[in-house]
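Friendly challenge for the regulars: who can give me the C-alpha cells for this chain first? No prize, just bragging rights.
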Amino acid sequence: MKIIIGLGNPGKQYEKTRHNVGFEVIDELAQKWSISLDQAKHKGIYGTGVVNGEKVILLKPLTYMNLSGESIAAVMDFYKAEIEDVVVLYDDLDLPTGKIRLRQKGSAGGHNGIKSTIAHLGTSDFNRIRIGIGRPAGRIPITDYVLGRFTAEEWKEIAQAVQKSAAACEAWLDKPYLQVMNEYNQS
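First reply, four minutes later:
Bragging rights claimed.
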C-alpha cells in the first residue's frame, strides 16, 4: 500500500494558488488513475484504488495547511501504514518555480504544513516531493505570495512540475523511493 498526500488549503479561494500545488498533483493522479476523491474522513478527502497491482490512497488534508499532520496521522493510523509507504507533496519557496526535489527526510524548512506533519508523525524521516514556487520579488509578504496565484508564465512551469511529480509517484509504485529520487533529481 502507498499513501500519496498533497498539501494545500481547502476552498475555492485557494484553488490554483502557490500553496496548493500538492493538491494539483493529487488531482492529476486521481484523473490519471481514475480514482475518485469521494471519501471524507480523517480530516481530509481521499480516494483509494489499485495501480500496477499496488493499493494506492490519494489524500488531500482539509485541515488547512498549518494542521496537515492531523489528517496524515489519522489516515496512517487507520490503515496501519508504515512511514516508508507515504510520500508528501508540497510547495517550496527555496526551489525555483517548476523545479522538483525528492527527499527521504529533512527539516520543515519553515513550511508550516511540514512542521505539523513532523509533529504528528513524530519523525522527519518520510518521503517528500518539494515543488518549487520560487520566492517573491520585492517586499511581498510570504503569506500573500504563497496564497497568491501563479502568473500565466509560471503556470506553464508548474504544470510541467505537476506532471513530473505525478510521474515520480507512479514510478515509486514499482521501484524503491531512493531509486526514484536518484532518477528524478537528475533533471
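DSSP finds six helices and seven strands in the chain. The chain has a mean pLDDT of 96. Your move, everyone else.
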